[in-house]
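Exercise 3.2. Students should predict the tertiary structure of the chain below and write it as structure tokens, then compare their answer with the key that follows.

Predict this chain's 3D structure.
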Amino acid sequence: DPATLSGDKIIFGATVSLLDENDKPIKYQIVGQTEADANKGRISYSSPLARALIGKQVGDEIEVTVPSGEKFYLVDKIEFI
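Answer key:
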């Protein structure tokens, strides 16, 4: 049960609140490939964004390369819900 997990690092199953470079909030849950649906806020653990997030902590900044260029995010909150 993910709700029983706690910790300060992002792992599989975590729900992560991010701020983009414009301070716009965005939230994703890291899930398996078959459960992934970015439109519903669920990203695969093998996606570039999830790979960049795993192991990070609140306050960490990450940079991700996507087809449209570089994206920068700040880890704002980590939850297990």
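Discussion points: The first helix runs from residue 48 to 53. The chain has one domain: 2-79.
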